[in-house]
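Take a sample.
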Amino acid sequence: MIKIKKFFPIGKIGIARALLPYEKPGEFLFQYSDDPNIEIYPGGHWYQILWWRLRDGCRELKYFGRNNLTIITFNYDRSLEYYLFTTLTRGFPDTTTWEEHEKLCKEQLDQGVKVIHIYGKLGELPWQTDDGSREVNYGTETTNCDLLIRCADNIKTISEARTDTQDSKFVEILNENGRIYFLGFGYHPENLEILGINKLRTGKEVGGTCKGLSLRRKKDFLSLLIEAGYPDREFVRSGQVTTLNDCFPEEYIYKFLDKVVVF
């Protein structure tokens, strides 16, 4: 599919058809708690850890937009945006009409959390679009041919993403942030090239998960950071001297976020 452009449309429809059934509204619905000691999601889920960190210190909804988080993802699905918006609407008292409350939640989420899909996504969620031209509800029925085509129009292949990112705009986004974490990332060379990791500025707190990653893939990735100027030894993380290799433990996202990440 990457090399034969005439198959792009049918390939994208196939991707949409395969992924849409996994968008289940009930999976995250009401997975909300202000108490980090309570694991509502069975076994724990990193979305919940993320919510606690974003929610911490926000006495009122109007303060949520002060968060400064940018998420760059290579995934097509919208589960994170759906979870954050659903949880946000239920995580603060509704002091106005429901329509006004949703509008304020949208504004605060747009200000506090930016989610960028490098390869596009299955569509805009209802609160993300005004005209509805690219809207695809979460949990959409996959037998609707028109919606499958709409989903396909919203996603990109690797070659298309490369064409759109020749100006290394993603490394510019990374360079605007002081802390950078890679979560559940495969560190595939093509994706690292799109991010422009070897052009990352030094002086940032960098870390991530490497659960199940081959030693060679991990070494190749760390070599790009070293190429960018990050020392292999005496790397500083959270004010403590450590090695660059130690910043990428073989842990699941949930445990990594719980122990390491500070927003």
User: Anything to note?
Assistant: Residues 5-161 form one domain.
